[in-house]
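FW: tagging you since you asked about this chain on Friday. Here's the raw sequence from the shared folder, copied in full. Didn't touch anything.
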Amino acid sequence: MTNSMNTNFDYLIISPHPDDAVASLGQHILNWQREGKTVKVITVFNEYGTEELSSENAWDYLLKSGFKNVKEFATARHLDDRRVMTELGVEFEYLNYVDAAFRRFSNTTVYLTAQALMSGRPSTFDSGLPAKIYADLSGIEAKTTLFPYGVGGHVDHAILRKVGDKLKKDNQNVMFYLESPYLWRHLNYLKYSVHILRAKSYINQIDNKMKLLKDYPSQYQMLVHPHEKFPEVVVDR
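HL: got it, structure written out here
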């Protein structure tokens, strides 16, 4: 769905991939809507290339998600996200950049390993992406725009953090959300505990959000471990 870029929303959420906005801010979205606030979600990296252009790391993730080829995987993720966005009743848009796990540059696989993908250090091949995404987003009017903080080290999240920092320097009202499930795994919550303590917004009652996540069947088992919950944290910097 493509919507008008000049509508002034109360909250604009920049989501790296399908499901990131709901996993990290789903309860915020529901609460804002109850308050009569308008919300838009823009998902940036929502394309996956082709079988011929996928790394072993991408294939490993695809197979763990239960799919046999990239087309099936891409179709399922698109359908899941559109269903949830429609269920939420928010406006949504896709920028159609290729997910880092599947990204290539001049026939070179940009991130060969999971370690490179989660290093928090975007490849030099991706050096032009922040400026391109900044140009895509800079004309959007929103009272508050929320970007991923990059707590898990995923390079796509790190790229968007750079864009968010630049927009904040432009005096736009930008805030950052600490991403789930990354924040609550691998002891990342200890590393970022100072931000949790100083959070501008913290929501612990997230049962309705967890129900929404079940509507991402292509990713649910990868996203949510048994009895795991994702409190939501929004910070200023």
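FW: The radius of gyration is 17 Å.
HL: agreed, and Residues 70-88 form the longest helix (19 residues).
FW: great, closing this out.
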